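Q: What would this complex look like in 3D?
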Amino acid sequence: MSEPSGLSRRSALMKLGILINGGIAAILAVPIVGYLLSPLRGKAGQGFDAWVSLGPLAQFPEGQTRLSKFQNPSVSPSDGQTAEIPCWVRRVTGQTFQVFAINCAHLGCPVRWFAQSGLFMCPCHGGVYYADGSRASGPPERGLFQYPYRVDGDQLVIHAGELPTLAADAAAGRRKPCVG
Amino acid sequence: MRWLESIGLWLDQRLHLSGLIREATTQHRVPRSSASWWYVFGSAALTVFILQVITGILLALLYVPSAAEAWNSLQTLNHTVTLGWFVRALHGWGSNFMIALVLIHMVQVFLFGAHKYPREFSWVLGVCLLLMTLGMAFTGQVLRFDQDAYWGLGIGASIMGRVPILGGWLVNLMLGGPIIGGNTLSRFFALHVFVIPGILIALVSLHVLMVFTLGINEWPMPGRLVRRATYLKEYEELTKSDGVPFVPDAIWKDLIFAGCILLAVALCAILLGPFGPSGQPDPTIIQTVPKPDFFFLWLYALLSLLPPQLETPVLLIAPVIGIGVLLLLPFLSGEGEKSWKRRPIAVLTVLLAAVTLGTFTKLASYTPWSPKMNAWSGLPVPEQCLKQRSPLERQGALVFQEKQCRNCHALGGTGGERGPALDAVATRLTEDQLIRQVLQGRGNMPAYGKNLSPAEVTALVAFLATLHPSGQRPARDASLAAQ
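A: Here is my prediction, written as structure tokens for the whole assembly.
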């Protein structure tokens, strides 16, 4: 206490201690932040999205829109029922399809198909779409999201794995030709 | 009792707490005017928070935070475990009471000018506490992992997805992956049980500590202005000249009110039971009408009523402005008049906010903007609309039902409210206008041109043309009448 030089040496040592702890904290922060941001790495294309089958073409009569479902490609045991994702399949003619996401383009609620009036209606905020997925009325700014599809033998296969949102759709547009 | 006293003395020699406790209780003097029934909401909110922590721990004993198991574990709590339903109900009702109390406390503080100098930071902490409380409400709603929770997450993700550039990342961070699943529930569990409560406990401690260090706001008197230079001295003099010890003179009201609130929570829990869970969190069950919990209903209504092009800007910018204004408030009006009697703009702001939130909440309770999904198959056409009608007109009534017109249009007071009620549509539109409206749609109405045959249109319009009160003539084309 009485020696100013000792005080400055001790305070320098204290600063060194703080520095060491800060340095180690900064080093530890790298893996911790990496761990926290791990959900983002799926974006780089680690197989969260894949081609999944909706079943044989015969399930989808021409000119009709049917509810279908598929297993999410990146499934984990704790997903339970949430691993099964529904979608609407419209077979326009022959090999031409439209596969609509169940999620309303407004805020993601499940849209329902009304065959008689040829409309998709959303129960949440009142979005309505025509049979081809284009916006008919209500708050959505755009038509229904669509999954890219292809016909593989007698199977209808779609490219899926991401919750359809405006951001996901924009990202999909950057990755591959956009059909939405 | 002597041995109890000696144990207490032994402990206090080591803990040195009795001095602190005395300082904060019997020796802590507060203005006599602040020992008021108006000053009990904060402590009641704290009491309910403690109830939430206790009931939350009790629920965590049995709740399984896995998307595959959560719903089943809630069913077990509700139906199998002894009094599991009651603990769930206490936690659910406690949550509602806590939000209500925090809001009432905030309004009271604002109207009594308690956010002004030197208590600005108490207000800032309070705003953070409000946000954390709402965060607890939203994450708690997700932990009740049912259909509403699943689709509520989808709505949250859709809102995140609208953020420019970072949207995709935010969605992934929120969901713990590219889609709603096991990871999503796990991270909401971590938020609800560790992260947010941790922050809440830390902020509540600071908030309460500041009540003791800065003293309780004196009863605001019109004309007694807050000035930075003199306030602290005036407050000290007030507690000396007209002060009372916080314990027991002020705290007895807090205790009695908090007790009544706990009783009310318990009564609600016993009489009204736990919240949900509703249907299983199975996305393939699409026959569902997702709805948020009570305190987010206003947001649900707002999202339905905003014009589409305004929605993203409002969703992303309004919260920033709103929270910013709340945080800056004590710095913008840190001095001056405290009494609400001399702050008409403050009173009007509170009233406007209350009326707005109340109106939106009320609207969201019957969702006039949503089509009634089962109206077309569940509600018959009113009898008076079919009496003495021609076969063509009755055929039109059939088309009206079958094409789900009823989902959006009411007849005889029943049906959807998305579009206008059609009981008197023939007085507003001529037959030509009806045909045009049906085929091409307009405003919020989709075009039905592709989905109706010419015969169906003829029948439908014939039916619609009969819909006018018996005393009123149907609409006529004035240009034709003039010829």
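A: To summarize the key features: Chain B touches chain A through 71 residues (CB under 8 Å). The first strand of chain B starts at residue 29 and ends at 31.
Q: Very helpful, thank you.
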